[in-house]
């Protein structure tokens, strides 16, 4: 099997990670393209002593780290909009903390594998994750609309959201209900399933909401690779079903991290 064939199944998830890290599909996908270009240019430099997925993320991190303007700063891809909004927060949260949080909670890497990826110890990784969660949660609070037709899943998500200190404005099970609830109580964050109770689409519900409100959205699906091809406008934040509570917490924290409505005063 060629190196390209080995890496292909992992590319959708690298896109997810890169988008979550940068807060942008465009910038995240640009880093992924740069990673692939580096691998094609120097295939002999690809780490062959580890799992291909680990090697892919390791190469990505090498690209990410060399994109810094100055040592200790976030990589720059001409940040505007959401990334510009997040600049004040980035000064409070170290890049390693955010990377550790996303690698463990969103991507499911162990502390040991994450330590390898960011050149730290497993103990350091655990401390970085705790630090990132504490800091981001302290800075970001929002009204949340949940669009989910499975009652048990909806209850679980609602519990997670409330435990983080956020307010749940409603739980919608259809497209029409979601739009109506958004109009009644404009949300600061939307968590949306893809398939809804009346066979309507959560994607369509979100499109309707975004036509009227500027709000960050996290999609929830059992088939994330279908929305992570890198060939069309796609979600920046996406959770895979079945999900871990820590995954939802990390995605919420990161989505709000880049949102204008939650920028702390001062």
UniProtKB/TrEMBL annotation:
Q: Per the database record, which ranges form the Response regulatory domain?
A: 143-256
Which keywords fit this entry according to its UniProt record? Answer: Phosphoprotein
Q: Which domain of life is it from?
A: Bacteria
Q: Which Gene3D superfamilies match?
A: 1.20.140.160, 3.40.50.2300
What InterPro entries does the record tag this protein with? Answer: CheY-like_superfamily (IPR011006), PhyR_sigma2 (IPR053866), PhyR_sigma4 (IPR053867), Sig_resp-reg_PhyR (IPR014605), Sig_transdc_resp-reg_receiver (IPR001789)
Q: Which SUPFAM superfamilies match?
A: CheY-like
Post-translational modification 4-aspartylphosphate, affected residues: 193
Its recorded name reads: Anti-anti sigma factor/receiver protein PhyR
Source species: Sphingomonas limnosediminicola
Gene encoding the protein: phyR
